[in-house]
Amino acid sequence: MGEQSRYWNEMVDLKRDSIYLRLYAERTESIDRWIEGIKAVAGVGSLGSWVVFKVYPEVWGFIIVLSQVFTALKEQLPYNRTFKATSKLSKDLDGLVLQAESDWFEVANGRLDEEQIHKRRMVLKRKVQEAGTARFSDSQLRTKPYLVAKADLAASEYFATYTGE
Question: What is the rounded CA–CA span in Å between residue 6 and residue 112?
C-alpha cells in the first residue's frame, strides 16, 4: 500500500471518528434531557403532592431533597464530562478533517512525493492524538458498536463524492 492510499485511509478514518463523536455527544445529550425531564417532574410532582394532599410528607420531602442533591452533583457525573469532551473533540476533529481534505487535493493530484505525503499523514496523526489526549486526559470513551456502524455509513456516503460511487 502506497502513501497515497494510507493518507486516504487516514482521512476516511478521521471523518468516521469525527462523526462517531458527534453521534456519541448527541446520544449523551439525549440522555441528559431525559434525566432533566424526570427530575423536573419528580420535583414538581412531589412538591405539589405534598402541598395538596399532605400525605407521606417524608417521602415527598425525600424525593425533593434527592432531586436537589442530584442537581448539585450533576457537573461531577461521568456522563456530563463525557458529553463535554466528545462535543469538543468532535469539533477538533472536524477542523482536522477539513485540513486533511485540503491536503488531499495535493496528494491526489501527484503534487507530493511519498515522503511528503508520509510527513503530512504523520502530522495529521499527531494532531489527532494531541486533540484526543487534551479532551480525554483522565478517562477513556467506551465504544458503542451501533454508533460506529452509523458513523461508518455516514463517512462512506460523505466520501462517495470523491470516488463517484
Answer: 14
State the pTM of this model: 0.81
Cα 46 → chain centroid: 35
Outline where the chain has alpha helix (H). 3-53, 57-73, 78-108, 114-135, 145-163
- Break the chain into its structural domains and give their ranges: 3-159
pLDDT tens for the chain, 165 residues long, are 899 999 999 999 999 999 999 999 999 888 888 877 877 777 666 666 666 666 677 776 777 777 777 777 777 777 778 888 999 999 999 999 999 999 999 999 999 999 999 999 999 999 999 999 999 887 788 899 999 999 999 999 999 987 766
